[in-house]
């Protein structure tokens, strides 16, 4: 190893170069010290460009050369025998007269710096906007859209199918509430673990594996519900203890955990690589397209299964759902592979040095006790990273919205409307219109951000949602839901409130995308989903206790308070931000 250092020192009227020879040394590092001086005077006419106290240093370090001596032309080696014995590398001579007057005259020219600066290419504002709006891998992004369409269509169909089919088994909210509760519990515990596993695993194989597990869990769940419809109905307490229901709960928990993990991978990692982190317009457009795909699939899934359920038996509809799961899986896997291939293998890129290097073999060979300890440490790490976010209030406002388990197109709302005798096509239309409001919100949010800024746009969405849900709760407590018109008005207010909810969802997603490094995207993203699932599981626990349909008004009031709390927390961030948040949203604070 060697280090060669050349120092130059510029003064007001000249500069000097110091030189000296190195004596042989057995050390591997060679230092080039400087002894005497050579003065070169500059012309006074060219001294208009003054260099006061300007020092430059050129260093060559960590090279593969092994130098035993460095000499100048005018100095002779004093002891070459020792050098020849230690190393056979030839002696390197450094010339001190390489700085010619012709080169020095360039530094004296006043136009030199200007010519260098003007030679740099500068993009116009239109060219910069065009570059920011162009995805890094547009063809791969289109393949990702197709893969999301195939996967979300089946997932949204199943999300509407299973609570409707279970609600027809017994007139109680308890079975649906228990299934939702354990699904959220699985996300709370397993979310950070799966997130870290995906951070340390190749993207494409891990994503495909989770899709296979999710499809298998959906098929098992459909089989259990079909079996439940073929046996004689029993009381709700005995249903919870049936083997098929226990298997259904476990399969549903695995299915939801896999669905959350794949969703986080696409929204927090894949889309950033394909659209480009440094291309904000392209990233915003990709986020909007993915949201529209998800919501369009929700519209189609709820509408299709609602129409089928109004015309056919539940078992026939469940068989149709199972068949759709089988054919969509190979299509989705093929499109995922095609996405990576069209993106020139960008999804194979390692996330960071930490994930690239991995863990040592000693750390990998651990016993069961160490695995449990590491799992607990991963959960703690996920919560720690989540709580250290600079935009934590915005994320907590998003989490508070998950306390709203009934004033939304949720499983409990589906079960409640089914038990009140509402036509399945109306229930499917309600879920479809809620999703349509989400599609409209992807267009509205862009306009709101442009007019109000990202923070004020988020606050406007939350206040709008809280206002409409307050009216919906007032309609419910008026006691007129026994008639069809008040029911439709009640559902209409909830549909309109989804416009504000989804506007905030779109705005908050981009804030988190740009603020979380890709090396921690899955860990923090799944932890956030775990926190949201914890909020939802608390409300589901309340629903398990108050499982009678007559307690729906109490659950609606709790849901309303959570939305009002989310609006208050975000508005508090808007009015009184911290210094770090001011720097993050400096443009908005000045407007």
From TrEMBL:
GO cellular component, one term: membrane
GO function terms (MF aspect): iron ion transmembrane transporter activity
Alphabetical keyword list: Ion transport, Membrane, Transmembrane, Transmembrane helix, Transport
Protein name: Solute carrier family 40 member
Residues spanning the membrane: 173-194, 206-229, 241-266, 287-308, 320-339, 396-418, 424-445, 457-477, 483-500, 521-546, 552-575
Top-rank lineage group of the source organism: Eukaryota
Purpose: May be involved in iron transport and iron homeostasis.
Family membership noted in the UniProt record: Belongs to the ferroportin (FP) (TC 2.A.100) family. SLC40A subfamily.
The organism of origin for this protein: Populus trichocarpa
CDD domains noted in UniProt: MFS_SLC40A1_like
Position of the signal peptide: none
Location(s) in or outside the cell: Membrane
PANTHER family recorded: SOLUTE CARRIER FAMILY 40 MEMBER (PTHR11660), SOLUTE CARRIER FAMILY 40 MEMBER 3, CHLOROPLASTIC (PTHR11660:SF53)
Membrane topology: Multi-pass membrane protein
Chief location: membrane
Matching InterPro entries: Ferroportin-1 (IPR009716), MFS_trans_sf (IPR036259)
One of the protein's GO biological processes: iron ion transport
